[in-house]
Amino acid sequence: MARAPRPAEADFAEYIRARRDHLVRAAYLLTGDLHQAEDLVQTVLVRVWPRWPKIKEMENVDAYVHRTLISLFSTSVRRRRWREVSADPQQDGTWTTPTAPDQTMAVEARADLRTALGSLAPRQRAVLVLRYYLDLPEAEAADILACSVGTVKSQAAKAVKRLRERQTNNALTDERGTT
């Protein structure tokens, strides 16, 4: 006989149902890899669960969860720098499924965005995800990243500048017909 879920379990399960996809998409923008994103979100949820009775009473539960997501992402990036990572040429983000031309363009655009985000420093990537994907105000992003609002502004500006430069360079390369 299954027992009835406790109120905290039910609240947590409801939160996961409502926010999991959103968290996975944010994590994917940070990591650039769906499997890593799902692992990251799972780790976040495991970390949040023991504290859930207190967390659910907070004014902004999402801010706490986002802070945990960014913190765990930053930790994983630091750890990855110290390990040797082998590159698998088959995991270059290319798509082999045949698609219609408009779908192909959409897939290419997403792949370009993933590559461009991957070229940014982890902190800049985190700022862009918080500000433009999660649509958080600068003050909340600064709180999550444990930095000043000015740092969020400058990191966002640098990241956007780098993405624009990359886009310009890619356009020039395409015009010349070189790769």
From TrEMBL:
RNA polymerase sigma-70 region domain location: 16-83
Keyword vocabulary terms for this entry: DNA-binding, Sigma factor, Transcription, Transcription regulation
Family: Belongs to the sigma-70 factor family. ECF subfamily.
Gene Ontology biological process terms, A to Z: DNA-templated transcription initiation
Organism: Actinacidiphila oryziradicis
UniProt cross-references to Gene3D superfamilies, sorted A to Z: 1.10.1740.10, Winged helix-like DNA-binding domain superfamily/Winged helix DNA-binding domain (1.10.10.10)
Domain RNA polymerase sigma factor 70 region 4 type: 112-163
Lineage per the UniProt record: Bacteria, Bacillati, Actinomycetota, Actinomycetes, Kitasatosporales
Top-rank taxon: Bacteria
PANTHER family: ECF RNA POLYMERASE SIGMA FACTOR SIGM (PTHR43133:SF50), RNA POLYMERASE ECF-TYPE SIGMA FACTO (PTHR43133)
Annotated protein name in UniProt: SigE family RNA polymerase sigma factor
GO MF annotation: an example: sigma factor activity
InterPro entries noted in UniProt: RNA_pol_sigma-70-like (IPR039425), RNA_pol_sigma-70_dom (IPR014284), RNA_pol_sigma-E_actinobac (IPR014325), RNA_pol_sigma70_r2 (IPR007627), RNA_pol_sigma70_r4_t2 (IPR013249), RNA_pol_sigma_r2 (IPR013325), RNA_pol_sigma_r3/r4-like (IPR013324), WH-like_DNA-bd_sf (IPR036388)
